[in-house]
Specification:
Elements: H1 2-14, H2 32-45, H3 49-61, E1 70-77, E2 83-89, E3 95-100, E4 104-111, E5 113-121, E6 124-132, E7 136-140
Helix pairs in contact: 1-3
């Protein structure tokens, strides 16, 4: 199992610097406000990214500790559109707006709990409810 995580992490961090400086804001469902929000979120996301990556690695490599209040979320966007995954906590009142560039992945530290997740993936809508107690790995695509 640890070798699987090592391979996953190698692939994860091998693609961390792939996000271009001029991301593609294509897609038919993106409004001008969402395009601007994506840009702003990506700028904020880059602050302390090395520290966040280290924390995500810690959560992925170690066994889940029930006493720990946070965990990792790794989200892969397999579409040609930039997306924002919106997570709203049911019981912990946490709200996350997580930017993921087209054809790439991004990782985050989130609080454990029950969440409603939603996103616009090009012209498709994504909606899900998840109870996140362990690291989350999510792959989203247009199809």
């Amino acid at each position: 199992m640890k070798s699987y995580y090592f391979l996953f992490l190698f692939l994860l961090f091998g693609s961390c610097d792939v996000i271009s400086n001029a991301p593609n804001y294509g897609g038919t469902s993106s409004s001008n406000n969402e395009v601007q929000e994506f840009r702003t979120l990506m700028e904020k996301d880059q602050i302390n990214k090395t520290r966040v990556n280290a924390e995500v690695l810690t959560y992925l490599l170690n066994d889940s500790d029930p006493a720990e209040k946070n965990t990792a979320a790794v989200i892969e966007n397999r579409s040609n559109c930039n997306i924002i995954v919106r997570m709203v906590g049911k019981s912990n009142n946490q709200i996350y707006n997580l930017p993921i560039a087209a054809n790439s992945k991004n990782q985050f530290v989130i609080q454990k709990g029950s969440y409603t997740l939603r996103s616009n993936i090009c012209a498709a809508k994504y909606y899900s409810q998840k109870n996140i107690l362990d690291p989350l790995s999510l792959k989203l695509s247009k199809n």
